[in-house]
Amino acid sequence: MKPVHRNGQRGAVLVIALLFLTILTILGVTAMTTTTYEERLAGNARDAGTAFQAAEAALRDARRDLNNIIVPATWANIRTPPISGKTGFGSGAVDADDGSCGTATVAPITQGLCRPYPYNATKGVPPPFNPTVSLTASPSVEFGTYTGAPKLQGVRVQPRYYIEVMCLPQFGGSLGDPNYCSFYRITGRGYGLNPNTQVTVQEIFLKM
Hints:
Layout: H1 12-66, E1 113-114, E2 141-142, E3 160-169, E4 179-191, E5 198-206
Parallel strand pairs: 1-3
Antiparallel strand pairs: 2-3, 3-4, 4-5
């Protein structure tokens, strides 16, 4: 009988064990990476939702500003005089749609009241977006400045807005002014917990 030589099998179990351990490690790292990525996606989506809600809040605050509505009855920093027509909109240098904004923060308060860029009012084409107006500082208005609305919680930066007056021509009307200047385009920007998360929204509001 010939002796059985097992030298060729020496260490085979160890190699197989190490191979399985390596595979399990790769699977574990992959699962952890996927979980972390999904958590980041969920966090980014939540932050974007927060920024969108803050931008919507800016629009609501601008509507209060347009209607001269204050939240606390004792709020003293109300806009004076109240917004009416196109009075106080723009730099005041000329009565033209030149994209300029008012900046005065004392009566007569014109901060955040802007003239749009030229547009075709007869055809109802809205003015182009004005990228020169800052939504991080004046001439835009911080949430609650002229309404007393309490600061939003859960955001890193308070939302801001500015208002553009839009004058549409009267067709057969008799309102005195040939243009009906009671349409206002509001641009608001909101932020999430991460100040780099920003959402900008617009709406056109008819002041009755």
